[in-house]
Recover the amino acids of this structure.
């Protein structure tokens, strides 16, 4: 195992996740929605918090940073383009920058749209990605500070990661996302199979993430906005691909 991960719920429907380097013991929290559950996760795993890797400035991803920094003197890495809205920050990063967690190497991918400076972290050797509120399982984040074209480009970057990349997102929204996705692609067999799997996971009280980029490419309508069947479903065959994405996002907003 190249990296260990530990996922835990916090706030109403947020996820926190720890990623640990078995070689050095270094551990990063991906975002810090609130300090208490992160402390509980550290106590449970016995891991030592060395870093917080922040995806974006929203309060439900950053409210725990201050207390964790005081307690653990960990390094806080945050997106350069919105670092002024996050506190405290030790290191500002942007596209292509490398972030080490012990001996684990992560690469920063700028994925703006949900917020204007949102970033994701990709650990190629461990085949792990932490995508914050850009990509969700069977969904994507609301386009709040950017525009649909920008968000679509961000999703294309994540779609371009290797199929076997496991990704962690910031929220448990999969069930509602599946209900919406079925309105776009009612005959998608991969989506139907996933729906059955997710129903089982949720009934057992289990999280529906992580999932893989490969699976999402087959099931997530937001990643499939340029597929002929999805274009047809939203009756937008001859417009730029991002406009099909924009239409699907708009329908989800009203769903
Ligand atoms: Zn957010």
């Amino acid at each position: 195992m190249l990296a260990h991960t530990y996922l835990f719920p916090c706030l109403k429907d947020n996820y926190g996740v720890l990623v640990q380097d078995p070689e050095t013991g270094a551990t990063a929290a991906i975002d810090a929605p609130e300090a208490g559950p992160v402390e509980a996760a550290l106590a449970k795993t016995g891991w030592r918090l060395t870093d917080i890797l922040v995806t974006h400035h929203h309060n439900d991803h950053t409210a725990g940073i201050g207390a964790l920094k005081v307690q653990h003197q960990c390094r806080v890495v945050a997106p350069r383009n919105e670092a002024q809205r996050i506190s405290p920050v030790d290191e500002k990063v942007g596209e292509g920058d490398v972030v080490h967690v012990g001996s684990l190497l992560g690469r920063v991918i700028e994925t703006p749209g949900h917020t204007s400076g949102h970033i994701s972290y990709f650990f190629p050797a461990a085949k792990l990605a932490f995508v914050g509120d850009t990509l969700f399982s069977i969904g994507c984040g609301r386009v709040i500070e950017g525009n649909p074209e920008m968000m679509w480009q961000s999703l294309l970057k994540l779609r371009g990661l290797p199929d076997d990349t496991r990704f962690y997102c910031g929220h448990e929204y999969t069930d509602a996302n599946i209900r919406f996705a079925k309105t776009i692609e009612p005959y998608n067999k991969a989506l139907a199979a996933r729906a059955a799997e997710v129903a089982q996971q949720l009934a057992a009280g289990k999280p529906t993430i992580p999932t893989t980029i490969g699976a999402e490419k087959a099931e997530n309508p937001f990643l499939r906005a340029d597929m002929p069947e999805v274009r047809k479903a939203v009756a937008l065959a001859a417009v730029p691909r991002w406009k099909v994405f924009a239409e699907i996002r708009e329908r989800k907003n009203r769903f």
Q: What stands out?
A: The mean pLDDT is 96.
